[in-house]
Amino acid sequence: MTATRLIAAAISRGQPALTAEYKLNLLSPAVRKKLICRARVIKPRRQVSVVAAGVFYVSDGVEKHTAMALTSIAMLSEDVAATTKSPAA
User: The pTM is what?
Assistant: First the structure.
């Protein structure tokens, strides 16, 4: 199983996660309706994983890079999650 699927599986089964850091580079305007996002886990870890994503738009069959994201995802244990208040709450 890929690292991306492991993180997605952990989150989908209810393991709490939070974005520790997020950087977004807007490279060019997305001028078409079709967008493609490709993400991959750069460094999978038990506590914090680093994930990169590229966003592309398709123009006349050619993909153009429009944005790039780099994020750190912190996987929280159940006991930490139970005592941590969500900033969204």
Answer: 0.67
